[in-house]
Amino acid sequence: MSKDNRCWIMFLATAVLAVSAARGQKETLLIGPGDMLHVQVFDTPELEQHARVTDRGDLSLVMGGSVQVAGLTPALASHTVEEALQKGQFLLHPKVVITVEEYATQKVSVVGEVRAPGAYAINTPRSVLDVLTLAGGLTDVAEREVLIERCGTKERVPYFVSNKADVALDSAVQVNPGDSVIVPKAGIVYLLGDVARPGGYTMTNNDAQISVLQLVARAGGTNHSAVPSHAKLIRKNGNAYSEVALPLSAMQKGNRPDLYLRADDVIWVPFSYLRSFGMQASGVVSQVGSAAVYRF
């Protein structure tokens, strides 16, 4: 091989390694015990090897002894091996590339509002949608904002499980072996009083929000005997409850803007002036515990 060709190959290899190192800084999937690694040393094919990381996290090199690679990205592991080869005076300017050929089987934990919570074995990064499928999918009361905690770094990555298929697929993030996926319970709002289906309703639509009129519609609307003009909104603030008048009748007629609710909000729609006379926030809130929770 001519000197010019060797220089050109060296330049390309250095550029590729630089890009790989830059990308490696953003990697979250780390090398772990049991992983099978492919070690390549530029222009020194006799040092190429396929080796598995030991239980202690070491990689035994053909030359250079053992180096600790567990907990490192492939790019950082490559740099560690380069330093070992230089320190042992085996090579003056080694250029090393390490790739993970096979990740050891590890478990991903899925907890919270899924149909089959538990630990599931995966040996490669999987889409969060795949992992949720392994756990049977979301329950009817699951919050759509799930949280992924990275193994090792403890970085927390949020992911919104959209009802729109293209959005869910395009925005899906990868779950790595050893990660944890937490699916919390969705917020619940309550509509009590003179409505068709009084009870609690989960905030499980695609926006994880619900407005006053949407809630009334899901509850089948107000009854003919109701007095929506005297409706109340009861909101929890710390350990206390505050009560404000809710212009539900004006909202239904389009004379007042709709209002988005918060989790644990309670709306009370009076039956009639006589039956609802003297009903205070404490009396309404006492009915929340026995309210049925509807999941649609």
State the order of secondary-structure elements, H for helix, E for strand.
Answer: HEEEEHEEEEHEEHEEEEHEEHEHE
Number of strands: 18
| Main sheet makeup | 6 strands, mixed
* N-C termini distance: 71 Å
- Based on CA atoms alone, the radius of gyration comes out at 30 Å
Enter the CATH topology name of the largest domain: Outer membrane lipoprotein wza fold like
Low-confidence stretches: 11-25
Strand order of the largest sheet: 16-15-17-13-14-18
- Residues in helix, %: 10-25%
Q: Determine the strand fraction and express it as a percent band.
A: 25-35%
Average pLDDT: 85
Question: How many structural domains are formed by the residues?
Answer: 3
With helices defined by DSSP (H or I, 4 residues minimum), what is the helix count?
7
Question: What is the 3D form?
Answer: rod-shaped
Quick description:
By secondary structure, the chain is α+β, with helices and mostly antiparallel strands.
Describe this structure in words.
It is built from 7 helices and 18 strands. The chain is of the alpha+beta class and 296 residues long. It has a 6-stranded mixed sheet with strand order 16-15-17-13-14-18. A 5-stranded mixed sheet has the order 7-6-12-9-10, with helices on one face. The radius of gyration is 30 Å and the shape is rod-shaped.
Provide the fold topology:
Blueprint: H1 3-24, E1 36-41, E2 49-52, E3 58-60, E4 66-68, H2 74-87, E5 96-102, E6 106-112, E7 118-122, E8 126-127, H3 128-134, E9 145-149, E10 156-160, H4 165-170, E11 174-175, E12 180-183, E13 188-193, E14 199-202, H5 212-218, E15 231-237, E16 240-246, H6 248-252, E17 266-269, H7 281-285, E18 293-294
Parallel strand pairs: 6-12, 13-17, 14-18
Antiparallel strand pairs: 1-2, 1-5, 3-4, 6-7, 8-11, 9-10, 9-12, 13-14, 15-16, 15-17
